[in-house]
Specification:
The protein is of the alpha/beta class and 307 residues long. The chain has 13 helices and 9 strands.
């Protein structure tokens, strides 16, 4: 597992956000998925929303991270998530202090908070864990730019996963103000391949996180390279490959559909999701399986041609 990072690491790889298996032969399932993702050239794995980390019991948090650490390649950047509430963050800081993760993502918190209180908790976490923080922004007004800038300045905040939806992603004054405050090199697009295109074309963000990359990692990497090289016409054409499954994710819940898609594609048996979630609607299973298998077939064809 990679234990040191620079901002350049945000540009090297699509940031895959995999689902997580926790029952049955879970270790083998998670390892199969990791190997599939890494074989496609993706070297950054973020266990966050798609892994339902907010519902990981703290009693198993360290154990599960230790297992994942052993399963990834030596040069893979493995990013755990923490929170979302302050109590879990305190407990997880103590666990991360015993490990060598360079950064952890703060899951979005929707309860009562103030900017000053949140910033203090971030700094306390970083000091206690020795791990820099990644901020996950999903809503306007989540944290002021002044506070974000101060957290970057003192080394507490490494980067931001920006996932605030807009009617027109290309036009986003809030994102523009954030870029003016801390620079585009610290910000990645945070909700899949489709919004990554306008985010990187119009806002020049460093990279993007995605779920479908777990099924088609080399195709998603190729899409990232097109965006970074400024070949947006090619990127738009490449994006069509992801459309069917992304449409189903939008229609049937992105987390649940991806969890089921990995299983139905035959990559790994992810089993039942963690608490508070269920598998994707059974009525969608046939469509998910068709879309996932078609995306996987395109991925394997691309790998064959590259070889």
């Amino acid at each position: 597992m990679k234990t040191t990072i620079t901002l350049e690491d945000l540009t090297k790889s699509v940031i895959a956000v995999p689902p997580f298996a926790h029952e049955g032969n879970a270790d083998a399932s998670n390892q199969s998925l990791i190997r599939h993702i890494e074989a496609g050239g993706v070297s950054t794995l973020l266990y966050g929303g798609n892994a339902n980390v907010q519902n990981w019991p703290v009693s198993r948090f360290g154990e599960w991270l230790d297992t994942l650490t052993k399963q990834v390649a030596d040069d893979t950047w493995l990013i755990p998530s923490i929170g979302p509430d302050g109590g879990k963050i305190l407990d997880q800081a103590a666990l991360l202090a015993k490990r060598r993760f360079p950064a952890a993502m703060l899951l979005p918190f929707t309860g009562p908070k103030t900017d000053a209180g949140f910033a203090r908790s971030v700094r306390d976490f970083v000091q206690a864990s020795g791990t820099q923080a990644i901020l996950y922004m999903k809503s306007d007004g989540y944290l002021s730019n002044d506070v974000i800038e101060s957290l970057v300045a003192d080394g507490s905040l490494f980067s931001i996963k920006y996932a605030i939806p807009r009617e027109n992603t290309a036009i986003d004054p809030v994102l523009d103000d954030l870029i003016a405050a801390i620079g585009k090199e610290r910000i990645v697009s945070g909700f899949g391949e489709p919004p990554a295109l306008p985010h990187l074309e119009h806002h020049q963000l460093s990279g993007f996180t995605a779920g479908c990359v777990c099924i088609a990692p080399s195709l998603s990497q190729a899409f990232l390279h097109s965006l970074q090289s400024g070949d947006f016409a090619k990127a738009k054409s490449q994006l069509k490959t992801f459309k069917a499954l992304e449409t189903l994710r939008d229609a049937g819940d992105p987390i649940r559909v991806l969890h089921s898609a990995v299983t139905l594609a035959g990559i790994a048996d992810m089993g039942a999701p963690l608490p508070f979630l269920t598998e994707a609607d059974e009525a969608l299973h046939h469509q998910i399986e068709v879309a996932a298998r078609e995306l996987l077939a395109a991925e394997m064809q691309a790998r064959s041609i590259a070889a």
